[in-house]
Amino acid sequence: MDQSAIDALRNQPIAPQDMWIAGKPVQARDGATFDAISPIDGRPITRVPSGSAADMQAAVASARTAFEGGAWSNMAPAARKRILHRIADLIEQHALELAVLGVRDNGTEIGMAIKAEPGSAAATFRFYAECVDKIMGDVAPTDASVLALIHREAVGVVGAIVPWNFPLMIAAWKIAPALAVGNSVVLKPAEVASLSLLRLVALCHEAGLPDGVLNVVTGPGSVVGAALAESMEVDVLTFTGSGATGRRLLQASAASNLKPCYLELGGKSPNILFDDAPNLDQAIAVSAAAIFRNSGQVCVAGSRVLVQASIYDEVVEKLCQQAAAMRVGDPLDLATQAGAVSSEVQLSQNLAHVEAALAGGARLASGGARILEETGGYYMQPTVFADVTGDMKLAQEEVFGPVLGVMRFEDEAEAVALANQSIYGLAAGVWTGNLGRAHRMVKAIKAGVVHVNTYGGPDITVPLSGHKQSGNGSDKSIYALDKFSKLKTAWIQL
């Protein structure tokens, strides 16, 4: 990447945005808009339509019409495959533009954003493009007088609600497999991170996606998100975000048409360092990055580091050194290691968690304050709390910010107990040189992803599944196709 190219894109004005309904850019029916505020400096960078329930109903109707019309749902798989590859091509061609646009909107440091957003999204569309013509039915083993065929079909209209931390990556996890199977999609972005997704839908149409197959409605979740969840014409709902919102979506599903509702929710992921870790300094450096990159705004962030007692003091000291040395600042500077917190509201919530942790008896070992306030942006010191115990709020509640709680354990059994002492079960990490211990820990920890001697990095080939109150279903991998397809049996008497 070239810093001068980033700086040129940084300074480009962003035109007022449109939603996409029925293949056309449109404003909200009542003309309402809201400011997109950049967390880099706290200033508005453009205006975005603030949709209403009527806008969402129009988008769902468009998706239904497109699905029933068959231009996409009945398209030959090989033709759908070509269009999905074209989408990936266009994402790659516009990668830096998309990354900078997203960073201006949500504050992720550009070094992470370029890989995690357009880089990941393009790879996701390519993966599911290759799945399109390999989605097969089956023939059941029946009596010779019967032919039993099992067909796999698209579900119809998919509603997708995505968060602000990695909007392009997570939207691709949902849009690409849904489109691969032949569905139509209505996408609802987060209010504080809509811009890269509005650009994505334009690229999808440029690639040849038929009108109405992908619609995007922006606006408050309490209005347009609720309308999507309550719609009788949405066949499947998929969501990444908070547990509180996930519960409301389940209630809306029950009150409407009982649509399946797949949820990837919060996490309080344990990252466990044993005293036989093969390279302790590397484990500490990776553990710091696992919580402080993107200012801790990562669903699988290793926000609890569990450390064996014999190395506890050394690990705490070195984690504090890592936190203090991390360069926090302008997310569009290639030298920055951690960018901005996404919004003023999120920053306030992070600081409130710091105050609660102090009140609860945790020891503040490093950080804990807002910084760079003179920029107008939303920046926070990487923060380390030591002497955290399992009953503290900091050990139980997701902060979704650069706040790490360090906990002490004596042996393997206590490490497992502490790791599982949470309502969440999204991810975990284990650092050990003992192969038997590694396998025991993978089996014992209740989480959808367990890293061993690393943290982060699983690619599109493997699922991300929430256990316990971290959700249900799977994003990524071939298993995600199951959410967006249904089975039909043909029982034929010969």
Itemize the secondary structure elements and their pairings.
Layout: H1 3-10, E1 19-21, E2 24-26, E3 33-37, E4 44-49, H2 53-69, H3 77-93, H4 95-106, H5 110-131, E5 138-139, E6 146-154, E7 157-161, H6 167-181, E8 184-188, H7 195-206, E9 214-216, H8 221-230, E10 236-240, H9 243-255, E11 261-264, E12 270-273, H10 280-292, E13 304-308, H11 312-325, H12 344-359, E14 363-366, E15 370-371, E16 379-380, E17 383-386, H13 393-396, E18 403-409, H14 412-419, E19 424-425, E20 427-431, H15 435-444, E21 449-452, E22 464-465, E23 467-468, E24 474-475, E25 485-493
Parallel strand pairs: 7-8, 7-10, 8-9, 10-11, 12-13, 12-20, 13-18, 17-18, 20-21
Antiparallel strand pairs: 1-2, 3-4, 5-6, 6-25, 14-17, 15-16, 19-23, 22-24
Helix pairs in contact: 1-4, 2-8, 3-5, 3-7, 4-5, 4-7, 5-6, 10-11
Low-confidence stretches: none
Strand order of the largest sheet: 14-17-18-13-12-20-21
**CATH architectural designation of the largest domain:** 3-Layer(aba) Sandwich
User: What form results from the Cα inertia axes?
Assistant: globular
CATH class of the largest domain: Alpha Beta
Number of helices: 15
Secondary structure: number of strands: 25
What integer is the average pLDDT? 97
Query: Number of folding domains?
Result: 2
Radius of gyration: 23 Å
Note the gap between the termini.
64 Å
Assign the CATH superfamily of the largest domain.
Aldehyde Dehydrogenase, Chain A, domain 1
Q: Which fold name corresponds to the CATH topology of the largest domain?
A: Aldehyde Dehydrogenase, Chain A, domain 1
Question: Which class do the helix and strand fractions yield?
Answer: alpha/beta
Proportion in β-strands: 15-25%
